[in-house]
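User: tokens in, sequence out, please.
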């Protein structure tokens, strides 16, 4: 320790303006944090209402400023200041949320780069066409995404639950089922085709995917960019007067464990009927 530097007198009272400069916060911020009980002044003059702070409170004030600059919510900041046992877990949750947001931003950047390089997908580039499909008996696993941004994670979890239940020697292609109308919570299902008369694996539900006429498109590239091709497919349906008659299906043609992301093939299918039918 440098003996030439005198320690700060913790009992010395500072005006709110002086303390704001010391803590690198605004007076407005200090008043807000005081009103929340996060950083109350050491003394409030009963006559003038002036607020005074001890110099020793600067560490807490600077901690608040640092954590807020890292997008840590104020309730978590309060736990850190109290030294609550839950503070580490709360900070970890904030870190995970920021990590998820960063991943979403990176996916958005990659999608924009693809649009800038190739333009928006079209009926020609996505090979959109009508196709007749037969009904299909399937084993299903279901889950719910907490938001549209959570669909990829939940779909991966459904696949991870389903794959160990299937015959590894004859793995069927998997199909994801997604509602066309996105709400705050999004039901997600992943299906595996069942042979005629075959029993569904344990922990799955048996269902019948309806057949009929489908508008189909081919997506080549990362799963995160499937919405680009889905946009082209849905726009094509609207332009050609095809009313949507069921959930969007994603048929995963390739194994992502052995296929590079930019070469993954996914067939998009949506059941349609003529408008007015």
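Assistant: Sequence out:
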């Amino acid at each position: 320790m440098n003996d030439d530097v005198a320690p700060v007198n913790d009992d010395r009272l500072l005006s709110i303006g002086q303390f704001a400069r010391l803590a690198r916060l605004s007076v407005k911020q200090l008043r807000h944090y005081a009103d929340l009980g996060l950083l109350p002044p050491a003394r409030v003059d009963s006559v003038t209402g002036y607020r005074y702070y001890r110099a020793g409170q600067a560490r807490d004030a600077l901690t608040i400023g640092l954590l807020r600059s890292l997008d840590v919510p104020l309730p978590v900041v309060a736990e850190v200041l109290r030294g609550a046992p839950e503070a580490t877990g709360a900070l970890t949750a904030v870190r995970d949320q920021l990590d998820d947001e960063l991943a979403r931003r990176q996916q958005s950047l990659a999608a924009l780069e693809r649009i800038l390089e190739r333009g928006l997908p079209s009926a020609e580039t996505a090979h959109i066409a009508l196709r007749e499909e037969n009904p299909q008996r399937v084993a299903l696993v279901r889950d719910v995404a907490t938001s549209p941004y959570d669909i990829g994670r939940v779909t991966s979890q459904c696949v991870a639950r389903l794959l160990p239940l299937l015959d590894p020697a004859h793995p069927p292609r998997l199909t994801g089922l997604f509602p066309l109308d996105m709400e705050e919570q999004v039901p997600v299902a992943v299906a595996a085709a069942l042979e005629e008369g075959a029993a569904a694996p344990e922990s799955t539900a048996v269902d019948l995917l309806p057949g009929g006429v489908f508008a189909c498109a081919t997506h080549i590239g990362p799963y995160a960019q499937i919405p680009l091709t889905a946009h082209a497919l849905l726009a094509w349906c609207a332009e050609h007067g095809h009313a949507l008659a069921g959930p969007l299906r994603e048929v995963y043609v390739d194994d992502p464990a052995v296929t590079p992301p930019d070469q993954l093939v996914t067939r998009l299918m949506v059941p349609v009927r003529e408008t007015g039918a």
